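Hi C.,

You asked whether I'd gotten around to modeling the 191-residue construct. I have! Everything is below, sequence then structure, no commentary in between.
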Amino acid sequence: MHYIEFKRGQWEDFFNPVYTMRFGFTPEFFQEENCISNKKNPGGPKGYDYTTIMTKEKYKKGTRITTCCSFEEFGAPLITLTDKIHSDENGNLWYGVCYEAVLWEKGINIWEFYMDGDKLRYHLTASSEFMVEPGALHNMEIRLLEKGFRVSVGDRNLTVRAENLPDEVYFGITGCENINRFYSLSIQKAD
C-alpha cells in the first residue's frame, strides 16, 4: 500500500496538476499546514477554483484508493478516474472523458463525462442519498471492479456498472463548488 499525507514536500512528486476541459485553466491546490485545498475565485465556477491533481501512473482493476477529506457547506470533494491525459503546447496537462465520484452534503453522485463530437457532455449515472456532515473528516474510497467500481463512505456503498471504464486509469482528486480539503490518500494496488 502507498500512503501519502498532503503536507508540504510529501505529495508533489506523486501527482500532476491536471486541468479539466469542462472549465479551462484553473490554479493548483493551495498548500495548508496539514492538507491541500482549493480556493475562492470570483471568476471560477460557483465562485471557487475547480482544482485537480492526478496520479502520474495508471492503475489496474482491483486497485483501491482512499482519500481523507472534508468540505465546507455546499462543497464537493471528488475522486476522478480517467485513462487519457493530454498535454497542450505549453506543457499543461488536460483531461476530459472521465468518471467523477462526488461526495456532498446529501450523499454520493457519480457523473460520467463523454465526448459527443467535439463537445464534452456529462450525465448522472448513479447516486445514493444520505446526510454527510460539512466540516467533518470523511474517508471516501473507490475500488475498481471488473465491470465498474464501488464507492464507499463510512458504511455506505454504491456500486456502479461502467462499461466504458478502461482496464487502467489515473486516479485524481478534485475540489469544487466550495472549499474542499484533502488530508491523505492511500492506494492499494491490485494483486
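If it helps when you're writing up: The CA atoms of residues 28 and 51 lie 6 Å apart.

Thanks,
B.
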